[in-house]
Amino acid sequence: MLLLRKRKGKNMTIYEAMNERHSVRKYTDRPIEAEKIAALNEEIAKINAESGLNIELILDEPKAFSGMLARYGHFSGCTNYFCISAPDGRDEDVGYFGEKLVLMAQTLGLNTCWVVLTYSKRAVPAKLREGEKVQAVIALGYGEHCGRAHKNKPMEALCACDGEMPEWFKNAMEAAMTAPTAINQQAFKFTLEGENKVKAEATGARYAKMDLGIVKYHFELGAGNTEFEWV
Ligand SMILES: Cc1cc2nc3c(=O)[nH]c(=O)nc-3n(C[C@H](O)[C@H](O)[C@H](O)COP(=O)(O)O)c2cc1C
Fold first, then answer.
1. Do residues 131 and 175 share a domain?
2. Distance of alpha carbon 113 from alpha carbon 115, whole angstroms
3. Is 147 in the pocket of ligand 1 (CB under 6 A)?
4. What is the mean pLDDT of the chain?
5. Residue of 63, 55, 106, 83 whose CA lies nearest to 218
6. Do 104 and 78 fall within a single domain?
7. pTM of the predicted protein model
8. Does the CB atom of residue 213 touch ligand 1 within 6 A?
């Protein structure tokens, strides 16, 4: 995988990417380099083959993000985005696999923002197959700034376990809490059952399943080498 050389001379890892990622809605006109586009397209091809989703990288298309004037969700300068299409009912996969691209983009020094509401769906030139709809887009590019950390609910409100919390579970929870969720709702709960079984639940309504896929990907990364089973 292509990795960004950071100022300190270290490569940005996927773990650093989780902490450094924040939603960015204002983009500069700096073009995305051809080798980064190629690396992202290569990853998209793998993800599409594995998941059956239909993800496309759409470049130089200004209309999807040009019409929204509302305070929340207003974008400027965004002409590049991932478009994730799938039949209804696949929200968790949309979240899980889309977040892989979000964190990969972050390791490449790019900024992102998940978007399900504040864009013009009609303007997206998606190549839809039978039964598919555009389920989400993810803004992509060089941000005017790198965003800022969201507020978190207390960890106790987002998880449960009997007895003392194992270190790996705490690390996984911390990683899950860096994840983006729709309107920062953090409507999820992870329950440790026994030593290595984890139940993940969406506790909200709208887009909570998409959020769940996103936070599950972060949780898996945060768990590191510890083996656990989703139940
Ligand atoms: C499934 C999903 C849908 C989202 N939809 C929108 C949207 O329509 N417009 C927008 O501006 N931000 C949207 N966001 C971004 C969230 O507002 C943002 O992730 C959240 O406030 C947490 O902030 P952070 O991403 O900087 O950590 C969405 C995020 C997710 C995960």
1. no
2. 6
3. yes
4. 94
5. 106
6. yes
7. 0.95
8. no
